[in-house]
Amino acid sequence: MDRETISPAAISTAPHIHAQSERDDADSYSDAEAGVGGIISEILEEMGQQKCVPPTSATKCSTGSPVEKATDEREPDKEKLPTSSDPPTDCLHNPTWRFQKKHIFILSEAGKPVFSLHGNEENLASIFGVIQALVSFVQDGQDEIKSIRAKDVQIVFLLKPSLILVAVSRTGFSAAQLEMQLNDVYHQIISTLTFRHLKNVFSKHKGFDLRRLLAGSERLIRHLVLSDSSTGQTNKNVFTFLTNSIRVLPMQASARLSIVNAIKENCHNHKNLVFAVMIIKNQLITMVRMKKYSINPADLRLIFNLVESSESFKNYDENWTPLCLPRFDENGFLHAHVSYLTESCQACLLLFSVDKDDFFDLSEVKKRITEKLERTQCFSIINEAAIKTKKVKLPTFGSDIPELKHFLYKPKAIAQLLCSDFPRPYNTIEGFRHLEATYCNLIECVHSVHRPLKLIYKAKSNEILLAWVTSAYELYAVFEPFAEKSTIIKHVDKLIKGIDKEFDTFFINSHPTF
So what's the pLDDT on residue 101? Predict the structure, then answer.
């Protein structure tokens, strides 16, 4: 792979950004007096009463809405939060609801509640009503509301056919990144229903309660949007979302080829089989596909989300489920045979067919693949690779870079991500939130629609931040604050060389075909 190098002159002229995520941790992540829920309820209710109209550009609406001091200082996880299955309670006055760092609201164009990330939708009728009224009011003026910024809270709107999606967040996500997440949520709904079915339902009855069709699928949406620091846990999935990529299970190319061959020799004669996907712990082991067809990384993340959030799949039974891959075909279902390989190997195999009656044929295919993998000792190879991948550290690259604290590396052509392990302080929730906000800001800067940047260098008192985008890859890194510019340049070059040397271990350069 052709590599580019950073010159000292380029570092010297790189933008020294000042970002919202660069505030001290204590300021960035301490709970606001009223919390996200308190601000959203007060802002939206006030806007509904006063009919506060965004500027003519409809991209922002700033408000100086007063925020009352909360009377309960308890931590959010200390009190039970009502869910959609709980008896009605007043969520708006529930301190736990008000202190959530992120809310997602989904409603129909007619204002019918569809989903709330936190709390019972029925108890949030006033919020849904104000959202629908606000969107309609702006549309009546031949405009479209995009986002609202109030204090440190982002409120982002996404209008789709028949649906309104709203994100309210006090995390490090920018408005553009929250819109990306809302798009993922929308496609998660499409994956359950298909766009054609969704359109037909609302064309016949605008006031239809979509929850009837989504019953049981709410867990998919929750799992999808709660992969960031708002849950109080560290999770690498947030970085694949931010970079629109997937993670690959690192393993020797020869070992991966053995797995591919086991799949190919048992699938190539099956005319209805479109994709065979093997994953483990949100990492792709391999994908074999029919010629001329491929799966978008965002659709692969929906597949990962389905597997990770479905406990019923983990009983080692065979499962048969329809799944729409919106970027592949938003109007139709593929039918997936889903099963874990064996109790001794936690890899999950998904076989996608265009025939809804293919279950028994694919069951036999899975059986033959499993037997072949067992004979070639691939189970132990997968297990060993899964254990090693928990610690993606620099010694793997044969490099000694003690000043490098963390990095993300994405080859642009294949949209796969290498994310190093979380050392101190990033293995704590406070440190992880800081890292998440840092990468949110760097990624937002290099992908800005107004002024995208190719190189960012930011020296701070506690760390040095680097973002570097070339025609071949994106690199985001955090260094110790005492590192010199010349040293960082050498370290980046060493890191890229190390990754290039083991590229076929960390990435899948092309997906084989049947």
Answer: 86
